[in-house]
Structure formats: C-alpha cells, structure tokens
Amino acid sequence: MSLRLGDTAPNFKAQTSLGEIDFYEYLGDSWAVLFSHPADYTPVCTTELGRTAALNNEFKKRNVKVLALSVDPIDKHQGWIQDINETQGVEVDFPLIADENKEISEAYGMIHPNASETATVRSLFIIAPDKKIKLIISYPASTGRNFQEILRVIDSLQLTANYSVATPADWKEGEDVVVTPAIKTEDIPARFPKGHRIVKPYLRFTPQPDK
Fold it and tell me: Which of 45, 71, 84, 177 is catalytic?
C-alpha cells in the first residue's frame, strides 16, 4: 500500500555518503525532506543536489534535515558528490542514501513500474518531527524540482501546525493568511489581534500571526 499524507514515515537504517544512519535517530526533533533521484551522474539530479546544497542555510534555519536517495552504491555516490561540488560550486554536506536493495524505495513507493522498473522517480516527502508525512510530490525523471516551492511549503506547514490558519494560493512568507473555518468570526479578534478582513463569511484573512 502506498504512503499517504498523515501516515507515519517508515523508519530505516541505511548506508549513506556520511556513514550508516538510523533515520529516526538522525532526524531527532527536526523536520525532514527525503527525496529520491533516478540515478547518479545524471544531469538534472546534479543540478538538484547542487541547489539543495546551496540552500543549506535556508533548510537549517527552518530546522529541516535533508536526505537524498538513489539505488546506486556508495562508491558512485562519493564520486558523484565530487562532480556536484565542482560543477555547481557547492559543498554537499547532507546524506546521500545508497538503497541498493531497494528496501527504502519500496517502503516509500519511490519506484513506479510504469515509469521505470529499476530507477526511482523524483519522489519527495516532507516529514514532521512527529514522523508524520506532511507532503508528497512525485516528478517525472525529466523535470527538476522547484526548491523555492519546497521551502514555501515548509513555511506553510510549520506555520499552520501552530496556528488555526491556512495559506492561500501562491502565499509567501509574510503575506496574509486565511482563518480556518473552525474559528467563529466573533472569536477572530481574540485569536488574531493583528486584525482581520472578511471577504465572505467563509473567507476571512488575517496578517501572518507569527510575524
């Protein structure tokens, strides 16, 4: 059965470019981005891992640990990291998982047989500190990810985990948010003292509460 939002992310032990890890122990109380790539030494993946490394500080300030995975072995990972560092002008300092037996890929549903019998698709999971899966995105092998969108979603998930709000279409950090339907209109001033505006009885906006 494939994983769904709200499911507990499977734990695993794995060999990585930074040594053996236990996934849950490695995460501790951090958020996680776990994503797969079809193969080492491929052009789109090279740019993706380079971009991830370049955004290292952005992930750290959000308390997010990043892990990448493919079914290729560790020795290929190590050589490829050198190429990524050289061509992308970065230093990859997050783990690349070697999932040679495909156990992790299968547990997370990263192999889609109609796309490829042997390689993982570009699956991405955002996992909260309670180990619940909060986001799943799968891209085809030909399309690189938008990492600014991934950071935007993390900002939304972390905000809405703490406040009774939702983020509207194209929302970015610092913009107004939507008050959830569970909050009665008459209770909004006490819950959101920065003010609010009512567009429709079911569509109420308030400034981002943690700013």
Answer: 45
